[in-house]
């Protein structure tokens, strides 16, 4: 089975994702057998006027982190598209890097399901939790 490691993830981040996702300046913290941790660096460009990071950027971080978790579980990049993402915002993320810990709950032949926990750097309390579903497009690389 092929291996999807941190080097493969970093290549994928710059090669596959839309330019506006790359503008989030995400970095791969860890890649494991069934999950990934990504960091979104703090930027005023991601905030409302009061320093609270906007929900749209948090949702994008969760969605992107889950792609890497699925690839890690599969051992390779698989084309996929988001079918569903439900996110619960629990508290504001204010003027801090945000970490997304994504875990695959089930990896099937045509669908994958996952869970993402978002937290600010240095604080274990979640700022948001997301449940996700993806259609796997195994023939679309």
Describe this structure in words.
This protein is of the alpha+beta class. The protein has a single domain, classed as Hotdog Thioesterase (Thiol Ester Dehydrase, Chain A, Roll). The protein is built from three helices and six strands, in the order ααββαββββ. It has a six-stranded antiparallel β-sheet, covered by helices on one side. The longest helix is centred in the middle third of the chain and has 20 residues. The chain is globular, with a radius of gyration of 14 Å. The chain starts with 5 loop residues before the first helix and ends with a strand. The mean pLDDT is 94.
Biggest sheet: strands, sense, closure?
A: 6 strands, antiparallel
Proportion of beta-strand residues: 35-45%
Question: What is the level 1 CATH name?
Answer: Alpha Beta
* End-to-end distance: 17 Å
Cα Rg: 14 Å
Detail the poorly predicted runs.
none
Determine the CATH topology: Thiol Ester Dehydrase, Chain A
Biggest sheet: strand arrangement = 1-2-4-5-6-3
- Into how many domains do the coordinates divide? 1
CATH architecture: Roll
> How would you classify the helix and strand content by structural class?
alpha+beta
H/I helix tally: 3
CATH superfamily caption: Hotdog Thioesterase
Task: Give the topology string: H per helix, E per strand.
Answer: HHEEHEEEE
Mean pLDDT: 94
Protein name: PaaI family thioesterase
Domain Thioesterase: 51-125
InterPro entries: ACOT13, HotDog_dom_sf, PAAI_dom, Thioestr_dom
Family: Belongs to the thioesterase PaaI family.
